Amino acid sequence: MSKSSAPRASESSASASSSKTGDSDPTGTGTSSSASDGDGADPASLSDAERSEIAADARAVATAGGKTVREYTYCVAAKGDVGDIGEFESTVFRTLNDARGWPRAGAVFTQVSSGCDMTIYLSEARYMTWFSSGCSAEYSCRVGQAVIINLTRWDHGVDAWMAAGGTLPRYRRMVINHEVGHRLGHIDNEITCDAAGNRAPLMQEQSMDLRTCIPNEWPLDSELWIAD
C-alpha cells in the first residue's frame, strides 16, 4: 500500500453495526455501539479526569494489540465562522481514542496547544480550497499535516449515508477516522466493499458511494496498520 505526499482530498471529487461476514466486530461484543459512543452525540466537553480515563483505555488497547504503540499529538483549530468548537474537540478526542478505532492499530492521540504532529480543523466549506486546490467545498480533506473537516458535512452529514442506516454522530466519527487515516498513511479506496450488506471499509470513500455496503465509522481488521 503506497503512501502519497500529495494533497489528500479524500472525499473531494464528485458525488456521496455489525458485519455479516469478514472482519470481526471491533468491540468483541457483537454490537455496534457502547454506552459512551452509540448513535447519540458525544457530550460537548470533557473534564481532565475523563480525558485521562479515555487515554488510559486507548493506551491499554494499543498495548494489548501487539502492534508498535505510536504516540500522536494533535492541535484543534477553526477556519472561518464555525461557532463554538467544544463539541468538535470532544468528539475528536473520543473518536481517535475509542477502543474500536485507531488504538487497535497501536495509535494513541493526545490534544496539545502547539508543536503537534497534525492539526485537525473544522472549516467552513468555502475555505476548503484555501488549504489546497485539491480539496473541494463538498467534502472533507487531508493536506500534509492538516486534517480538515468540512463544516457543512459536520452539520448535515451525507443524506445517502444516513439513509443507509447511519446517523449524524456516526458520520462525524467516520469522517474524523477516515481523514486521520490518511495522516497515518492510508489512501482512499485501498480496499472497498467486498459483499453487499457487509460493513464498508473505513478508508472507502463512503460519503460518495457505499458500494452496497453499510455505513461504518471504524477501521476494519484489514485496515489496522500504520505507515506514517
Structure write-up:
Residues 66-210 form the DUF3152 domain. Residues 1-52 are annotated as: Disordered. Residues 1-47 have a biased composition (Low complexity). The protein has 228 residues and is an alpha/beta fold. The protein has one domain: Collagenase (Catalytic Domain) (3-Layer(aba) Sandwich). Helix content is 26%, strand content 13%. The protein has helices spanning 48-64, 86-96, 128-131, 151-156, 159-163, 168-183; strands at 70-79, 107-111, 118-123, 141-143, 146-150. The protein has a 5-stranded mixed sheet with strand order 2-1-3-5-4. The protein is globular. 43% of the residues are buried.
SSE arrangement, N to C: HEHEEHEEHHH
Structural class of the secondary elements? alpha/beta
SS strand fraction: 5-15%
Tell me about the biggest sheet? 5 strands, mixed
Strands, count: 5
Question: What's the CATH class label?
Answer: Alpha Beta
Percent of residues in helices: 25-40%
Tally of contiguous helical segments: 6
Which stretches are poorly predicted, pLDDT < 50 over at least 5 residues?
1-9, 12-22, 27-37
| Rg, Å, rounded | 16 Å
Tell me the overall shape.
globular
Second-tier CATH architecture: 3-Layer(aba) Sandwich
Q: What's the average pLDDT?
A: 86
